[in-house]
Amino acid sequence: MGQQDPALSVVVPMFNEEGVLPLLAERLRAVLDGLAEPYEVVAVDDGSTDATAAGLRGLRERWPQLRVVRLRRNSGHQAALIAGLMRARGGYVVSIDADLQDPPETIADMLALARAEKLDIVYGVRGDRSSDTAFKRLTAGAYYRLMRRLVGKQVPAQAGDFRLLSRAAVEALRDLPERTPVLRLVVPWLGFPSGEVHFLRAERAAGRTKYPFSRMLALAVESVTSFSAAPLRVATWLGLLGVAVCALLVIAVIVAYALGHTVIGWPSILLAVLFLGAVQLLCLGLLGEYVARIYTAVQARPAYFIASDSDPAETDPGDTA
Ligand code: UDP
Ligand code: MG
């Protein structure tokens, strides 16, 4: 960290947020100026097609701590967030939505908690989602349950992308070979000491959601496939099931034959079809196992992170950080 680096960076991804921009600037600036510490705001304009870019230009004239990073085209919330995180220079970096659903006032609490308890990660946890639709609450609930099964209990339920990261945590993210990590899963997986700050999720201040159902579904699929090869193994289990059913049928056919209830030709055809289907599924599953191995190799995630070493001269070839 250089001499003139700010104590705090606030990363705000925004896509077509002309409506909330003035409100956001007002509330965010009040909070950040109140901290009486050097800070920067990294506004990531995710290829907005409305007056967001112009609005940001106007704000910059009166707000020297505002930095604007513009993406060439709309790349999505996660990508915009990562772009901002990678460029942030602060000792602590907070990411926050532009629409004021995450209250900027909570940033001060996050910073205080991180410093008081020496935490590298502070999650903003939505205490109450009554401002979201029943559908969003239902799907989000299912999403977090699934993710906690896949990644582990360290994934906090109801924590979105409103969070604080220390410089060390940002560097750890930057060192990951992955280009598009699903942040809300990868951040807990990094294993840093973390805490939570609860807040009430407000209504969107202006404009409408940029997260239609299709994008929510895409995030869910990406989350599962970026942390689990389980879907690739479904074929193996189906194949084994097929073989088991096949075996039971063979017994049933023999019993039926002994009792003289056989229709000539029927059992052999059915068994052949079933058996071939099961073998095909097993082979697909086998392929899946290899694809899964290739996939984890390509991800090249480190298997572990060293928290500390009493003898730092000892170099560990396994630690990539
Ligand atoms: N966003 C973005 N790029 C996109 C979609 C959304 O940068 O392609 C930003 C958006 O401007 C907002 C944040 O991501 O600051 C969260 O989006 P939104 O509030 O629409 O999602 P919701 O709260 O409805 O889930
Ligand atoms: Mg929102």
List keywords for this structure.
321 residues, alpha/beta, seven-stranded mixed sheet, elongated, binds uridine-5'-diphosphate, binds magnesium ion, transferase, Nucleotide-diphossugar_trans
Cofactors, ions, other ligands = uridine-5'-diphosphate, magnesium ion
- pLDDT < 50 stretches: none
Strand content: 5-15%
Q: Order of helices and strands, N to C?
A: EHEHEHEHEHEHHEHHH
Mean pLDDT: 87
* Inertia-based shape: elongated
Largest sheet: 7 strands, mixed
Question: Would you tell me the structural class of the helices and strands?
Answer: alpha/beta
Helix tally equals 10
| Share of residues in helices | 40-55%
Rg result: 26 Å
Output the strand order for the largest sheet: 3-2-1-4-6-5-7
State the end-to-end CA separation.
17 Å
Tally of strands: 7
